[in-house]
Write the structure tokens for this entry.
Amino acid sequence: MYGDIAIDLLRELKRSATHLIPPYNADKMRMVMEEIKSLYNEVKNTLEDFDQRKQDLPVAGSMEIQYQGILRNKRCLLAYLNERTLRLQELRWDVGAILPVHIKENLSLHEIDYFTEYSKGLNTYMQSVGLDLCSDSLPPKDLYIEVRVLEDLGEIATEEGFITLEKDSQHFLRRSDVEALIKQGSLQHVA
Amino acid sequence: MASYYDIDDILTDQESIPVELKTDIIKLGHFDPNTDSPDLKEACKLDLPLWLVSTMSKRGLLTVLEPKVFTKPYRETLKADSVHVNLRDWNEYFFEFGMKFAILSQNVDVADMLLDCFTDRYRRVMDMSQNAVNEDTSDLTKSLDALEKRLFDAGHLADKEYTKWKLRRVERITTALSLEAANRKRKRP
């Protein structure tokens, strides 16, 4: 049936965890676009071959079905791209402007472009209002928090100078300095 | 009306409905596995996806028949005891598909049945979602259809957040969900 490959794409997205971006399936995208083209040609041929009878139900019905097939495929492809874009936007708010490598692998070139541009737009906006909208997403209770280091990070700059973060060491640091690192999964917030 | 980009809505439209053609249709013989002719013949019976059926029935090309899960025996089963039926086995989008089908075929019986069935089952869905804080929920939700599952997830999330708030865990910063899922996948050998 028309649209079956396109539906596969969407099922693939549904199967993956809600916040994960699975690898961009360029093969299937191309196959669906081929299907759209071939449907379009079929409709065109029917129109030429049956010019005199194009108002008849058997001919019109056939073209209608193929035309609906085109629209259906289009809707599926756009929904696929849209859902991925939304997840990508969410990622920008969660982990900041730098794309983690293992996520970047799963994106198409256009999606990487989109992420960069989206990030730029958000930065420009945050500069114009003079506020980092990504920090303190939850109301903070304490100025300092206890964190455990999950992977070697080397030296980082904080408001109170430099500090070396070695794996498995524990530190009492300013919340605002480490919030991003916790979100990126390099540190753990110990209560 | 669902959004154009709504994936659940698109997948609902993929469910198939048995139909009977009211007219010949040229070229599309490959839709019917029981014929070798290149064209479709009048009165032949087919299973077509909902997205195709709805436009074709508007144009008077076909008659809509009842999908198996909305036939009388199935309706009687639900009437007898809807709470213990595994709706997901019947159809993953039972309610949403049912509503679309009821509108399409003007079938009042199906519409009434859906409402009764939903009302009967709703209490249990709510109850489960509010009492499963730290459990694996896959066992609880395996008999729910997609709509009920969404309600369950919403209720479950709200309950979890409330518990977190009561225990004063809200201010703890956690790894971003999108990364956590990716990391889990990456670390698996």
